[in-house]
Every structure is written in C-alpha cells, then in structure tokens.
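Support request from a user on the community tier.

User writes: "When I paste my structure tokens into the form, the page sometimes reloads and wipes my input. The last time it worked, I copied everything first. Here is what I submitted, just in case something in the input itself triggers the reload:"
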C-alpha cells in the first residue's frame, strides 16, 4: 500500500496525520499517512530505509529537521533553497525532491490581505518567518518590519529582500512602530503555544496600530485561540488561526503524495475534526 508520513522530534502533537487521513477517507483512496519520530542523528538511516520502500511516496518535515534534511535529498526546489527550509519531500522516480509548502499555506491563510504595495509585520526570525518574508517579497509588498529578539538571526532575512521591498529589523520594544500601518501581522514564533513563552504585552497592545482591515495570522494552532488572536480581535483586526496555514500547506503535499487534489468543500468538516482533537 502506498503511504506517506510526517517526521519530527517530537511528533506526537502533529495534526498532519488527521488531515491526510481525513482526505484519504473522503476520496475513498487506498493509502496510509503516519507520524514517525526521527531523532536528528537518525536521518541518514531513515532516508536509506525509505528509498528502498517502493510504497513510500514522501514525507512532511517538522522541527527540528527542516534545515538539515536537505543533505539527504537529490534536489531542493528554488523556493525551499532560498528560504533555507524544507517541509515536504516527495519522490520523482528514484529521486527525492524537497520543497517548501509553508509558502502555499501562508498564501492561503493570507488570501484576505491586500499585500501588493502594502506593509507587513512579521514577528520572529526562524523558519516560519523566512517563509513569510519570502511570500511577502513575492507578493511585492512595499516594506516588511521584522520584530525579533535575535537581531543577528533576523539580519539573515534581509537577504530574501528585493529592490522593491524594504526590510527593517526592530526589537520588541519598538513593536508599535513595526506594526503601524501594516496590512498583515504574522506571528511566526512559538509564543502563545501551550507551554511556551507568552508574547510581550506591549506587542499585543500595539496591534491597534495596524491598518484598517489588517489580517492577523498566528502560526500557532495549539491552542487554537491564542492571546495574539484575542488581542487582534479586540483591536478590530481580522484574526486567522494556525489551522488555516496548516491545512493550506498540507493541500499541496497531499497532491504530491497521492496524485489527487483534496476536497476543499470539506474544509469546514476537517476544521471541526482538528478542533476536537
């Protein structure tokens, strides 16, 4: 039987199996989707084993492997290479190809925002932030304000810019300046995740500086309604939870793994299932 999976360490929290299994059942397809814990030191053995399995169609990749899996692949797509992170691997014949479908998920989640010629604010400087900056530049935004604790790490994001897009890096203490006039604000940090640090209160209070109709996207989806989204709603912004991005990035991966497009008309049912979990 054909199968795909998600790999990470830890991996028990992943909602990817629920998403892909839902679509497999909805379409009546024979196939499996699993969650497999792979320690950082086990990637070489993992890929050697999967290359020899004709039923394996690929895998999604989550922390801490998004940057390190590239060493085990035959090809890395242009966007994934530029972003510096791979979150989806699929087979093309005997070759393993790495892509970044987080960009697809972000594009779907931010579909309600008018990005061209606008300003956006991105909170964070990790892999999620890199995907957000890449999408913003691709969408021809006017400027990007990156709010980050680690200015050295955030500086590397400036390399994703273009002649059309100004990128500024600001500390959390200047959140109000960073968010002022933004058409979209993206939380690309774990802050707000169950058990993680909370986002600084002054940053949450700065959301009322965003432009009218601003979309506030939180990549965190556990819990679904985070303090960031609660503050965004109170400030009159349009809140978008992490499931929107998660489902969006999974949609392209499912097509690559199983060769068919998942049913978008079942998204409400899928969200209800994921919320119950």
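"...and here is what came back when it finally went through:"
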């Amino acid at each position: 039987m054909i199968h795909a999976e998600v790999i990470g360490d830890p991996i028990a929290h992943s909602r990817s199996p629920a998403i892909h299994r839902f679509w497999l059942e909805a379409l009546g397809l024979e196939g499996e989707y699993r969650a497999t814990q792979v320690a950082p030191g086990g990637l070489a053995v993992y890929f050697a084993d999967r290359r020899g399995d004709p039923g394996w169609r690929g895998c999604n990749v989550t922390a801490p492997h998004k940057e390190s899996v590239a060493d085990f692949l035959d090809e890395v797509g242009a966007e994934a290479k530029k972003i510096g992170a791979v979150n989806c691997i699929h087979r093309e014949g005997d070759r393993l190809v790495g892509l970044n479908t987080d960009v697809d998920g972000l594009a779907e989640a931010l579909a309600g925002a008018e990005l061209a010629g606008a300003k956006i604010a991105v909170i964070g400087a990790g892999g999620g932030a890199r995907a957000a900056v890449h999408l913003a530049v691709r969408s021809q935004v006017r400027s990007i304000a990156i709010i980050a604790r680690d200015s050295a790490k955030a500086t590397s994001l400036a390399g994703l810019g273009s002649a059309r897009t100004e990128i500024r890096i600001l500390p959390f203490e200047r959140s109000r300046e960073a968010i002022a006039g933004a058409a979209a604000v993206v939380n690309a940090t774990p802050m707000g995740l169950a058990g993680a640090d909370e986002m600084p209160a002054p940053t949450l209070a700065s959301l009322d500086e965003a432009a009218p109709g601003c979309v506030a996207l939180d990549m965190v989806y556990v819990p679904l309604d985070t303090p960031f989204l609660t503050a965004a709603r109170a400030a009159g912004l349009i809140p978008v939870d992490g499931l929107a991005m998660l489902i969006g990035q999974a949609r392209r991966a499912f097509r690559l793994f199983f060769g068919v497009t998942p049913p978008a008309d079942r998204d409400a049912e899928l969200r209800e299932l994921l919320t119950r979990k």
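Agent notes: The reload is a front-end session timeout and is unrelated to the input. Residues 65 and 160 are 21 Å apart (CA to CA). The two ends are 27 Å apart (CA to CA). Escalated to web team.
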